[in-house]
Amino acid sequence: xxxxxxxxxxxxxxxxxxxxxxxxxxxxxxxxxxxxxxxxxxxxxxxxxxxxxxxxxxxxxxxxxxxxxxxxxxxxxxxxxxxxxxxxxxxxxxxxxxxxxxxxxxxxxxxxxxxxxxxxxxxxxxxxxxxxxxxxxxxxxxxxxxxxxxxxxxxxxxxxxxxxxxxxxxxxxxxxxxxxxxxxxxxxxxxxxxxxxxxxxxxxxxxxxxxxxxxxxxxxxxxxxxxx
Length: 228
Description:
Blueprint: H1 3-9, H2 13-22, H3 43-49, H4 53-61, H5 81-91, E1 96-100, E2 106-110, H6 114-129, H7 144-155, H8 174-189, E3 197-198, E4 203-204, H9 205-208, H10 213-219
Antiparallel strand pairs: 1-2, 3-4
């Protein structure tokens, strides 16, 4: 693997900057060989998947392709870099995880900070501003909006309609509502439509998620739980 990828994964922003200054073509490099987890990925894709968002901005400003798709991925699953950025932004939203107090009582704590969420979200905005296609579909037929919805389903409280036993008791906190709402609002403003047929599902996302909390974010206007 070329040295620039090692620098990216290690978060060595200045070294990446220096390598670009010495040879601007490294921005368009694609990882090969070992480790296999990076094979087929662009510098920008490695930065996003590694959570090195400042480096991702540097690469975009230096001419990295915002529409890159890792078609040579050993896994055979080719994904646009925008999909990776959306998953990163959702995972770094301020969702809540179950924990326990010293008295062994169940409680919940917020995962991630506002700055962490902001940094990840900023890359999604930057990619779209740089020309990434909001309608880009991966090799499995999933759209950008669909990828964001699937990632959101993993961090949102479980509240399927009519299935009280399936609920996990987590609160829907205001911070999570803010972080996820801006992602879905952004995608809709850029042209994504939850009412359109999702190729992977053969139905719309609105229909597929109509009984889940994800559906309220797809439609817009999600609200947090009332304060206790």
